[in-house]
Amino acid sequence: MKLPTALRSLALLLATTLPVYGTLVVQLSFDELVQQSEVVAHGRVVSSRVAWDADRSSLWTHYEIQIEESLKGELESLVSIQEPGGELDGVVSDVAGTPRYAVGEEVVVFAARAGAVLRTCGWGQGRYVVTRSATGTAAVARDLRGIQLVTSRRSSRQCPERRRGIP
């Protein structure tokens, strides 16, 4: 009789302690997202390519966005956003929660500099996909799959996030 109880207890323990997969990201209010973004723009994704970094240790996906309207920051008509991960030369690098853009997609993007490149601010928090109804009414939504938003007691949240291996 004790064995089934022990097995049930073990099963319950395992079920409640299994790891949660995803990236922990400090939750940003909309005002923080705007404030910490160097660039806020509405546009359309026109290209996507994957490349190795300079020392061939990490894959990065480079997205080109044709800007329709700059909402913050001085922008050229074409902006490049770089995100970690991608697939190239038979190698797949997938960073949970990394924003992914699709060619042809209409977006509003909040981005900040990470060194010499622009990255989406707040991971998926800074990428809004624009959809249009049959009548042309626009709606925006963001995709937060792969990230878990956490609150921070620290008052100086910064964007983009700097993590080991991700500039």
Commentary on this structure:
21% of the residues are buried. This protein has one domain (19-150): OB fold (Dihydrolipoamide Acetyltransferase, E2P) (Beta Barrel), CATH 2.40.50. The longest helix is centred in the first third of the chain and has 16 residues, at 2-17. The protein has two helices and eleven strands; from the N terminus they run H-E-H-E-E-E-E-E-E-E-E-E-E. The model is unreliable at 162-167 (pLDDT under 50). With 167 residues, it is mainly beta. Strands 2, 3, 4, 7, 8, 9 and 10 form a seven-stranded antiparallel beta sheet that branches. It has a two-stranded parallel sheet with strand order 1-11. It has helices at 2-17, 30-36, and strands at residues 23-26, 39-52, 59-72, 78-84, 86-88, 91-93, 106-114, 117-120, 127-132, 138-142, 147-150.
Helical content stands at 10-25%
Quick one: overall form? Answer: globular
Detail the poorly predicted runs: 162-167
User: Biggest sheet: strands, sense, closure?
Assistant: 7 strands, antiparallel
> How far apart, in Å, are the first and last alpha carbons?
55 Å
Count helical runs: 2
What's the pLDDT, averaged over the residues? 85
Number of domains: 1
Total beta strand runs: 11
What series of H and E elements makes up the topology? Answer: HEHEEEEEEEEEE
Q: In what range is the share of β-strand residues?
A: 35-45%
Rg, please? 19 Å
